[in-house]
Give the backbone structure.
Amino acid sequence: MRANGTKRAHQAMSTVTLGTFIDLYLADMRLKNRTPDSITTNRLHLQRFATHAGGGEVQLGRVTADVVRSYVAAMQARHMRYEHHPTRPPVEGALSPYTIRKTVKILRGFGSWLAREGLANPFDRLDIPTVPKTLVEVLSPAEVTTILAALNPNTANGARNQAFILLMLDSGPRVSEVAGLRLEELDLPNREAKLMGKGRKERRIPFGQKTARALLRYITAFRAEAAKPEFTQVFLTLDGYPLDRNAIGLILRRLRIATGVRKLHAHRLRHTFAVNFLAAGGDLETLRRILGHESLEVTKRYLTGLQAAQVKKLYDDYSPMDRLSGGDPPRRFGPRGVTQHRSDGDRQ
């Protein structure tokens, strides 16, 4: 009798709409004190899946493993990125394997929650796709100098942007952590900031004297008056509203265009901090704590960027052809970057 009752309950629950269960899942995330950014990201990915599955009103029982697999296949076949993005215009190009991997992990997390609630999990056979193991790319010292030189610290926008970019280069916080940083969490005398990271886990990060001076100058001389008393975030718009992660991303994209630093984005600033920290003699465990990683294995990926930078430096010092004396006459760059022989005619 109990088995029959359980079966009937499962059948009844399977007729509830997918949209209802997504709402319940997000409510559960809020009860577990997950970050607003995490909840928003999950909502967007799950709503996109629901649209593919037939809309939020489709019954959960109609969401099969075939529907799930067809969604992932459709993502892999797409040729347009940033559709429906709040700040970025759509551009042609395949979705990044990292984007697809993130979507699959979110779907699997939702499926695990369904299973815990005693419901069928149509995502349980969905494999997390592998992603290429690429080198961690960082900004060069010349690129960092170019970026900072493009900021005018004598304007409200320039002082603010300089302060948060220095903080990101100096301590490697995530863009969401920068956006969420509040005045009461900033300890300028001790050069520390308390951040709320992933999983609502707090940590403290240090920063240097130059960053501390930029923060103090922005806060005391240029920070706008908050539009509401509860807006105690460090970084505000000129109208006094909190600068969110999308606004920071937009600032960096405009700066990328202005400076010509092609791959300037928030995570590249974090990568640059991590590799420079290791290059200066920092250890992996300290870096893990500063970055807020759960596992040291995640932090170790920055060793690849460090090794690439070290190899490049050693090569520049010991290039066989650059160290070769005699032989070909000296060369110089032509007007379009093509090397040319220097001849007597060049002197005229």
Summary: The chain is about 55% helix and 5% strand. The first strand starts at residue 80 and ends at 81. The mean pLDDT is 84.
